[in-house]
Amino acid sequence: MAWIDLKDVLGRTVSGVYGDLVTRRTGHAVRCGIEQLLDGGESELAVIDFGMVRLMDHSCADEIIGKLLLQQGRARYFLLTGVDSGHEEAIEPVLERHGLVVVARDRAGRVKLLGVLPEPARRAFRLLADDGPAVPDEVAAKLALSPAVARAALETLRECRVVREQEGHYQALPSA
Asked: Please, where in the chain does CATH 3.30.750 lie?
């Protein structure tokens, strides 16, 4: 697992004086710093820690989260941690605009999905996050979905890289 502290990356790429992610230029510099950390790394899970970031605007969210997921989202799993409501307000519109989804863990440790997904996929993720790995038939039974709808929801989550599938069992990040 690659652990990326945004405050550290901000300090190395822009300024160690403040903990705010504002302006597209700052976002670009931070994303390039993250990409350098990820280059050559073999970990397929990257955890991006927002814990020490006080503020993030939409342009920084687009540069850091949007472009990072667009460029590396097919090769890696991403988990955002230490996310607060202000971060979510900046990140959500970016994800919606690009049709992206990411797993976020707030400062209290609660896990949720950010971005746009069909309701069956959201419910399936919540079930996996709360109850652990499951096969499609278990998800269908527990959520009162048809087996086809449950399979489609799980495959949507797998394609969005917010769950992993191994030997027919689906497991939600971050426990995966």
From this structure: 1-116
Q: Is the pLDDT of residue 83 over 70?
A: yes
Give the CA distances from residue 7 to residues 12, 36, 45, 114, in Å, rounded to whole numbers and listed in that order: 9, 15, 19, 21
CATH code of the domain made up of 118-176: 1.10.10.10
Place of tokens 């540069």: 63
Dist. CA 167–CA 108, nearest whole Å: 32
Cα separation of 71 and 131, whole Å? 31
Q: Which CATH number fits domain 1-116: 3.30.750, 2.50.20, 1.10.150, 2.60.40?
A: 3.30.750
* pLDDT tens-digit map of 104-141: 999 999 999 999 999 999 999 999 999 999 999 999 99
Using a cut of 0.85, tell me whether the model's pTM lies above it: yes
* CB neighbour burial string for 141-167, b if at least 16 within 10 angstroms, e if fewer: eeeebeeebbbbbbebbeebbbbbbee
Q: Residues of CATH 1.10.10.10 domain(s) within the chain? A: 118-176
Instruction: Mention every residue, 6+ apart, whose C-beta is less than 8 A from residue 99.
Output: 115, 116
